[in-house]
């Protein structure tokens, strides 16, 4: 929700609080992709997963558009209805569009990753990190291969490659408390770096331009934070309390649906354009701090009530007679097998 606040109207101590809270939230989109890559790199192609992913996106896109139109008394537009019915092709959610493409191509990319030795894999990570991460940070004005700031399939596959390395070659057993402290330190570096670059930019008359290079998804500090918090989560089984483990799973299980609900263009427009944008930024910040966790819980409950029952039914039904045939063709033709590593 902090992205909806007009940062141009924020100054003084509120600016530092806003920047800090915003930076805290940035790595978690990367984490979602890393989690997916971690499990996909060793799993076979499943057409049902793609279907369920699309249906879930379609369900929320269309249902929320019709619901918001009904509640606000807005006339239904045929064009918007079409875009809502085709949420990925219509780019209603940029993340869903890119993630969908990554998932389809993941079997081929997994074969490529598994074919490399550990040494080759490390070199590959150095190269893609330099091309898609460091290049833009060192030369901010350069038109790089990943100039979208992380909103592209190139960056998603970069994260996928890191996830694959963690799955195939990395010892995951670390103390989760130490990992979390390192995550906090990395976030602090991002925050201080952002303030420094912003101060430097303002000092030379650039009005803060360039400060975003350290807060983009592709930033080396954001990438580091993303990997650290993922490894922290990966070692959460060290927590002996089953209640805490179950609570973490219960809340995280609806994360994609929460995204689909609160980032829906119609819901987002209703939240910001018609309400919070008109408030004083100090009041908006206070409301956001209180409302954000409540919004997550509300979206999660909506998901448990609306989508989860549908998902459970669809997941049990052999809804496509050729499902296994497609999966087998993909697995045999792409030749998904485990390679030996150094």
UniProtKB/TrEMBL annotation:
Pfam families: Acyl_transf_3
Keyword match Membrane: yes
Molecular function via GO: acyltransferase activity, transferring groups other than amino-acyl groups
Keywords, ordered alphabetically: Membrane, Transmembrane, Transmembrane helix
Flavoprotein listed as a keyword: no
Acyltransferase domain segment(s): 10-300
Transmembrane segments annotated in the record for this chain: 20-41, 53-78, 98-116, 123-143, 149-168, 180-197, 217-234, 246-262, 282-302
Name assigned to this protein: Acyltransferase 3 domain-containing protein
Organism: bioreactor metagenome
